[in-house]
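Extended Data, panel c. Modelled sequence:
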Amino acid sequence: MTATLTGGHTASVLCVDVDKTASFLASGSENGELCIWKSDGSLLKKIENTDTGCTSVCFSKEKENILYVSFDEKIKIYDIKNLEEPVDCFEFNQEEINQIVLDEKEKYLAACDDSGEIKIVDLYDKKVFKTLRSKHTNICSTACFRPRKPWEIITGGLDSKLIHWDFSRPKCVDQFNMQELQSVNAEGDAYMFNPPLVHNLAASLDGHYLAAALENGHVAVFDISRKNIRELYSLHAHSQGTSQVHFLSNKKLISGGNDCSICIWDLEKADQVETESATNGDATSNGHTNGEDVRNESVSEAAKIAEIQHVGKINWMKPFVLDGSQKIAIADQSPNVTILNFELEEI
């Protein structure tokens, strides 16, 4: 079952978020339109910002009715109860912001931009706490605070790098080159034509997993439960670039891609296959590269529990629960927002 939010945007919707009570949904489009929708699908407010894009929206989970929105290099903060003017505005980034995220206690906001920099903003003092720079050599597309580690953040970029930071110092703790981690598949595989650019990151709330959406169609899964992050396996997810990853629960993961498909994964099943493969030595049976591919294919086959076909390329997704039903808000290349509903038994 699906519902469509129409009559708000006039251009492709880039981003979407839902507040903690699922009372409001916010969406932003490439021509700078910010739309606030009520849970019944009606449009509460449309805010237009001429000659700028609305690139990221993020509801506070601690402060009721507070919404953070990025318009190019600016961050505006709105109170849903009074949307006439923003309650605050930050202008710390020098180039277009690609994503804004909040830490667990909502003391800090991270804004990653086209220059490859990440601004860590202290929301109490309303100033830049730290600037993370000189590691991404291209656009920094995504950021994710590490759960249960208050001073750590992980970022990904179009340089195919995934970087683990301690932003209190600031210091690069570790970095991963996804081009080196992602094995080269057999000739004719569609993945080999696309480099593993990092488009989106998501962490499970229990701090066990990190998932990375990659341009080569894969979802790289990392173990972040220990001090040092390590790659577990790569889910062969989409026939085109993977654009979005989100956790439905600590073990269930959802991915969306440019192939218009949405995949739902059970990482517990993936871990079981991974453990069996390690025990049997399958990863090295045919040489490192072929063995890794065989293992990842086996993991992917076991872990995928559902696939849903959407009507367009997915720009952003946000899973949420309303009245006991699992839903996904989807932003695609159309001016509409789709609300997909599926039964809890499916996941």
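Confidence is low (pLDDT under 50) at residues 184-191, 283-288. This feature is highlighted in the accompanying rendering.
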